[in-house]
């Protein structure tokens, strides 16, 4: 392939455009915010159906290929075996794929829906609580992981079975040929992947910063201010860039393993001091509601507008765009750690196990929050409706060991974000360096700084709305790239099977 080994063109163009966006936000935050608002409204109005349809395609594709004749094919040579233990693999999958969003929304999303649902149930009712858990399961279930898988599967397959560079553009060799992948077409795909990755990580960095500021305010009375948020971003940037520079084995894997144990400790702690029986019942009921309503929920839009359209714009479509924008970096990272697994094993591990982990998380944290409202008659959803970032800390106030668990939660927010951002920094550097499995530390430092700078600009110019907009904007073109990746992967599998 006729790309330079350094991938210089992709790197320079991506850096130049990113710096231009950062400067625009710094010099004229008002016009930047106005443009972001206009873009946000246009994308959800005219391409909302596209986000919904493509995410459904990814779920069907993953399940179909796992049960097909290709399910036994290995992501690597036939004699290859997994590089990491199942526990470490799951830890890195879960930490990179969900990140700080799970902590941010674990209690807050069910509480938010409980107080403001467009599904017909009266806000604050028992049915509203059940609907709130169901829709949270829907947002964090199979769909996001299917999006990651449709990038990770073909990338791992080509990278380790056919020795292609670890670039998103490599996925398209069976579809357009090596010459086009090595030229302008391939560079365009890789630049889109870089911007989608940048958008996804920046959104998470902004969310993590908002929640850390809220937690510091609740626990230590640190004021909520732009200065504190910028300081938090700077501190996080040092942590995630440093751990990425240490590499997967010495940095990313160790943080992910630690992160998993902190996660399990917090879940177990709240399970013991919280409404344990209600959590178990909520998990069972929520899984049943999720499965029974999966098809209808996956295709429901708002053709006649109304409150449901507002809900879709603020939640489902935002989530779907966020997951798509995360797909290139999570997919690239998951591909990097999945060598030697069969397609069937990969799909089971990437779709089912992390989804069950998310369901368990929401059943514990979401049910604990809703229990305060329904059983103990405490109004904490009002605070969440005003500021979604305070949800988990509002909940902890009313449980034994709540203060201690809030402090540990602050640690988890940091480690969750670091495990996502160090993976993203690593992947951005890979994409900038012709898919190098161990990219240079210099490129990691550049991307780490630029991600932090973009997060600062987005927070200062429009807060959460601008963070959502950047995900929507990057996801629209990349969703088409992902559909084409599915077609290309099937073509490659068929071609190889025909040779046998």
TrEMBL record:
GO terms for molecular function: transmembrane transporter activity. It is found in: Cell membrane. Keywords: Cell membrane, Membrane, Transmembrane, Transmembrane helix, Transport. The keyword Cell membrane applies. InterPro entries: BCCT_CS (IPR018093), BCCT_transptr (IPR000060). The keyword Transmembrane helix applies. It is a multi-pass membrane protein. The chain crosses the membrane at residues 7-26, 46-68, 89-108, 142-160, 189-207, 227-248, 260-280, 317-334, 346-364, 403-432, 444-464, 470-494. One of its GO terms (cellular component) is plasma membrane. Belongs to the BCCT transporter (TC 2.A.15) family. This is Glycine/betaine ABC transporter permease.
């Amino acid at each position: 392939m006729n790309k330079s080994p350094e991938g210089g063109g992709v790197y320079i163009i991506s850096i130049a455009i990113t710096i231009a966006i950062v400067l625009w936000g710094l010099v004229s935050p008002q016009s930047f915010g106005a443009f972001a608002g206009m873009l946000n409204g246009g994308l959800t109005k005219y391409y909302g159906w596209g986000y919904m349809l493509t995410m459904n395609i990814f779920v069907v594709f993953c399940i179909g290929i796992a049960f097909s004749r290709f399910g036994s094919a290995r992501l690597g040579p036939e004699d290859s075996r997994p590089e990491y233990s199942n526990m470490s693999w799951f830890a890195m999958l879960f930490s990179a794929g969900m990140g700080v969003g799970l902590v941010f929304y674990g209690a807050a999303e069910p509480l938010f829906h409980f107080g403001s649902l467009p599904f017909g149930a009266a806000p604050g009712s028992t049915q509203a609580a059940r609907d709130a858990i169901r829709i949270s399961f829907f947002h964090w279930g199979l769909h996001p992981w299917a999006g990651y898988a449709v990038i990770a599967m073909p990338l791992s397959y080509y990278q380790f079975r056919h020795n292609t560079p670890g670039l998103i553009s490599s996925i398209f060799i069976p579809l357009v040929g090596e010459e086009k992948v090595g030229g302008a077409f391939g560079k365009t795909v890789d630049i889109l992947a870089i911007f989608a990755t940048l958008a996804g990580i920046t959104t998470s960095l902004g969310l993590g910063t908002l929640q850390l500021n809220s937690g510091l305010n609740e626990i230590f009375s640190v004021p909520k201010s732009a200065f504190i948020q910028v300081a938090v971003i700077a501190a996080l940037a040092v942590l995630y860039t440093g751990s990425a520079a240490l590499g997967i084995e010495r940095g990313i894997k160790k943080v992910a393993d630690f992160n998993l144990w902190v996660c399990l400790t917090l879940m177990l702690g709240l399970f013991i001091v919280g409404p344990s029986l209600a959590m178990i019942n909520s998990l069972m009921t929520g899984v049943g509601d999720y499965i029974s309503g999966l098809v209808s929920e996956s295709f429901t839009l708002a053709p006649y507008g109304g409150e449901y359209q507002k809900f879709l714009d603020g939640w489902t479509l935002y989530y779907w765009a966020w997951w798509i924008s995360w797909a290139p970096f999570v997919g690239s990272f998951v591909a990097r750690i999945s060598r030697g697994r069969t397609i069937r094993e990969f799909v089971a591990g990437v779709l089912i196990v992390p989804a069950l982990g998310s369901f368990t998380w929401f059943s514990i944290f979401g049910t604990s929050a809703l229990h305060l409202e329904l059983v103990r008659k405490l109004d904490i959803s009002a605070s969440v409706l005003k500021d979604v970032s305070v949800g988990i800390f509002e909940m902890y106030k009313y449980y034994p060991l709540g203060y201690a668990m809030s402090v540990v939660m602050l640690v988890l927010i940091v480690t969750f974000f670091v495990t996502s951002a160090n993976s993203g920094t690593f992947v951005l550097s890979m994409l900038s360096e012709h898919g190098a499995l161990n990219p240079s530390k210099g490129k990691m430092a550049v991307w780490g700084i630029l991600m932090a700078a973009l997060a600062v600009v987005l927070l200062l110019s429009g807060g959460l709305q601008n963070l959502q907009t950047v995900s929507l904007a990057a996801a629209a073109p990349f969703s088409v790239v992902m559909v084409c990746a599915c077609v290309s992967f099937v073509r490659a599998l068929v071609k190889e099977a025909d040779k046998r």
